[in-house]
From TrEMBL:
Keywords: Acyltransferase, Transferase. This is Beta-ketoacyl synthase. GO terms for molecular function: 3-oxoacyl-[acyl-carrier-protein] synthase activity. The keyword rRNA processing does not apply. It comes from Streptomyces cyaneogriseus subsp. noncyanogenus. PROSITE patterns: KS3_2. SUPFAM superfamilies: Thiolase-like. Signal peptide: none annotated. Belongs to the thiolase-like superfamily. Beta-ketoacyl-ACP synthases family. The keyword Transferase applies. One of its GO terms (biological process) is fatty acid biosynthetic process. Residues 2-405 form the Ketosynthase family 3 (KS3) domain.
C-alpha cells in the first residue's frame, strides 16, 4: 500500500483518564483503573472487578438533546470523537463533508439503554419504550451519531470482531484513505456494557477472573493467570493522507500506520496452529519490515493461560526468544473489547514519541517457558521507531497493526 497514512488526532476515554495526557501519565506511573464494579449489587455474580470509568458526566460534554437518545457507550464515543478532531485541528467544512468519514468497531452495542427499555416494555407496556430504542442499541450507532454530529458524510461503517475489531476498523480506515475514497477518517472503538445483563454476557465466556483483589485479578503471562478483567472505554483516532495533512497544518502527526493484517484461527480439531503468527507476518510484510525492524510489541495479553501461551509461541516464532520488548498496558485498565486495540495503538504511538515502554503492573511471575521480554514494574527508557500492536477476539479473530514514528 503506497499511500502514507498518518495519525493527526487522538481522543481517549479510559478507566485511567479522559484525555490523552491523563491516560499516558497514569500508564507510565503504573496507575491501576481496575476496581469493584459500581452501580448495583454484584454480590450474586461470580466476578466483581472491572476497569470502570469514574467521574464521567456526559452532560458536561454533550448537548442535552443527545442525552435521551444515547447509551453510555455512545456518549463516551462522542466525547472521544470531538477531542480527536480538535486535537487534529480538523475543519470538516473546509476538508469537505463528503471527503471525511467514520468507521468504528463495537462488540456489544448500547447494552444499558436497550436493557432499560426492555424492562420498561415488560413492566410498564410498549407505550413507555423510548422511540430511540430503534437505534440506540445498534452496533453502528457510534459511527452514525459521530457522522451526524460532525457532518462527516463520507465513507462510513462498523466492524464487529470482538476484541480484534478496533484494529480492524483502523485497517479499514487506512485502506479507505489509501484508495483515495476519503481525505480524513475518524476510526477506532469504544465499549461499555456493564449493566447487569451486559455483565452476565461478559461472565458467560468463562474466562473472566473471579478474584476480588484488583492487584491479582488480571495477570497476563503470569503463572497465576486465571482470566481477564473487562474494561470500558477506548480511543478514536484521526487518520489522514500524510501529504494532505502536511498541507493543512504544521502540526506534527503522532506517527504513521504502515502495516495491517487480519487472520482467522482454523476450526478446532483440525490440528492446525492458531493464526496469530500469520497475522504478525502479514502485517510486517505490509509495512515492508523484517522482524528485527520492530522495537516494541503491545501484546493482546489475554490473561488466560492457554491464550497467553499461544501468543508467546507466536512472538517467539517471529522474533525469537526474548527477541523484542513486550508491554501489556491492559493490566491497568482491563480488556476493553473493541476499544482495547485502538487504546493500545495510542499507547504505542506515545511510547515511540517519548522513547519509553510502559510497564505491565502486578505481573511478578512470568512463565519461564514463554521466553518473552515483558516490561514490568517500571517504565523502560528505550530508543524506538516501530511498534506492533496485537489483538484477538473470541471465536478466532486475530489482528495486527504496525505504527512507526515520523523521523
Amino acid at each position: 500500500m503506497s499511500t502514507d497514512v498518518v495519525v493527526t488526532g487522538i481522543g481517549v476515554t479510559a478507566p485511567t483518564g479522559l484525555s490523552v495526557k491523563e491516560y499516558w501519565d497514569a500508564t507510565l506511573a503504573g496507575t491501576g483503573g481496575i476496581g469493584p464494579l459500581a452501580g448495583y449489587d454484584t454480590s450474586g455474580y461470580t466476578a466483581r472487578l472491572a476497569g470502570q470509568i469514574t467521574g464521567f458526566d456526559a452532560g458536561e460534554y454533550l448537548p442535552g438533546r443527545l442525552l435521551p437518545q444515547t447509551d453510555r457507550v455512545t456518549r463516551l464515543a462522542l466525547v472521544a470523537a470531538e477531542r480527536a478532531l480538535d486535537d487534529a485541528r480538523a475543519d470538516i467544512a473546509e476538508l469537505g463533508t463528503y471527503a471525511c468519514g467514520v468507521v468504528t468497531s463495537n462488540a456489544t452495542g448500547g447494552f444499558e439503554f436497550s436493557h432499560r427499555e426492555m424492562r420498561r416494555l415488560w413492566s410498564q407496556g410498549p407505550e413507555h419504550v423510548s422511540v430511540y430504542q430503534c437505534f440506540a442499541w445498534f452496533y453502528a450507532v457510534n459511527t452514525g451519531q459521530i457522522s451526524i454530529r460532525h457532518k462527516m458524510r463520507g465513507p462510513g461503517g462498523v466492524i464487529v470482531a470482538e476484541q480484534a475489531g478496533g484494529l480492524d476498523a483502523i485497517g479499514q480506515a487506512r485502506r479507505t484513505i489509501a484508495h483515495g475514497r476519503s481525505r480524513l477518517m475518524l476510526t477506532g472503538g469504544v465499549e461499555s456494557s456493564f449493566d447487569p445483563w451486559g455483565w452476565v454476557s461478559h461472565l458467560a465466556s468463562g474466562t473472566v477472573s473471579t478474584r476480588t483483589d484488583p492487584t491479582a485479578a488480571y495477570l497476563p503471562f503470569d503463572r497465576r493467570a486465571d482470566g481477564y478483567v473487562p474494561g470500558e472505554g477506548g480511543a478514536l483516532l484521526v487518520l489522514e493522507d500524510a501529504e494532505a495533512a502536511g498541507r493543512r497544518t504544521d502540526r506534527r502527526p503522532y506517527g504513521r500506520i504502515t502495516g495491517y493484517a487480519a487472520t482467522f484461527d482454523p476450526a478446532p480439531g483440525t490440528g492446525r496452529p492458531p493464526a496469530l503468527r500469520r497475522a504478525i507476518e502479514l502485517a510486517l510484510a505490509d509495512a515492508g519490515l523484517e522482524p528485527d525492524g520492530v522495537d516494541l510489541v503491545v501484546a493482546d495479553a489475554a490473561g488466560v493461560a492457554e491464550l497467553d501461551a499461544q501468543e508467546a509461541d507466536a512472538l517467539r516464532a517471529v522474533f525469537g526468544p526474548f527477541g523484542v520488548p513486550v508491554c501489556a498496558p491492559k493490566t491497568m485498565v482491563g480488556r476493553l473489547m473493541a476499544g482495547a486495540g485502538p487504546l493500545d495503538v495510542v499507547c504505542a504511538l506515545l511510547a515511540l514519541r517519548d522513547d519509553v515502554i510502559p510497564p505491565a503492573v502486578h505481573v511478578t511471575d512470568v512463565v519461564e517457558d514463554y521466553r518473552i521480554d515483558l516490561v514490568r514494574d517500571r517504565p523502560r527508557p528505550c530508543p524506538m521507531s516501530t511498534a506492533l500492536v496485537l489483538a484477538r477476539g473470541a471465536g478466532g479473530f486475530n489482528s495486527a497493526v504496525v505504527v512507526e514514528r515520523i523521523p
